[in-house]
Fold:
Amino acid sequence: MRKGMISACMAAALIVSPVMAKPGFEQYVASLKDEAREAGISDALLERAFDGIEYHERAVSSDRNQPERRLTLDEYIPRAVPDWKVAQAKKLYNQHYDALKKVGEQYQVQPRFIVALWGVESNFGKLQGSYNVIEALSTLAFDGRREAFFRKETMAALTILQQGHIAPEDMKGSWAGAMGQSQFMPSSFINYAVDGNQDGKKDIWQTEADVFASTANYLKQAGWDDTYTWGRQVQVPEQLDRSLLGTGADKGLLLSDWQTKGVRRMNGQALPKVDIKAWLIQPDDEKGRAYLVYNNYQSLLKWNRSHYFALAVSHLADRIKFD
Structure:
């Protein structure tokens, strides 16, 4: 038998039902159904939503085995915002400009940030995930590491199905249950999704009008102000008190205060003379990139608590405008 090959008998022996391999999963699913019934989800919908689902080992392994090596921003930003993605973002920005402009004016969010989030989250809808959302969420809830969170998200996903926004077999997403072109968790969908084309459904999987409006609504509800941008990369003096860094409520200072402390634009010039609060961040270390960020950046952190995510979105939005 050649290396890398197994016999049919051996292969058959290795095929074990994921449910049977995890005693208790069926009973756990039954408890999810009971909770959902009490919340008003119909039996017919529950049977359809849970039909054929199994314990999904890949979702658990993805949750538990996040990459250990973290790239520096100098490594990460070019990978997250490559030239081809910038070109695609600009093309789609121009292609959908009228719709984006309308949504931007309605929610007071600059359209370039809507497109940037679209690009970073799902490569403009091309990478939405292929997991059955109910199956992934049920698995992760059963796994127990973050049971309360994933059980709540399972109930939110069932509510979305009950409301008729998408069919159970079409509700696809990431291993963690993030859905559609905007990669909303089900609870975010409940709170922020919008029927942008007014067809009676909030479809963040296939309908771009809904994706744009939902993204803009999320940012607006998170405190976005289109009077300003997100921030800028800066130079910081070596002797700067590092206790000043961070995005906490007590860390924000006026730009004039940062100017007094020696912070400068990347070209060495003075900071803008604008009466706005900013926070100084340096996600890698004292030798890594430094940024002064505004409240809109804080809104991006509400979407995803990762500085790397927020900076990727911010850099892509800037390149849409300035490249």
User: Anything to note?
Assistant: DSSP finds 15 helices and seven strands in the chain. The radius of gyration is 23 Å. The longest helix spans residues 147-162.
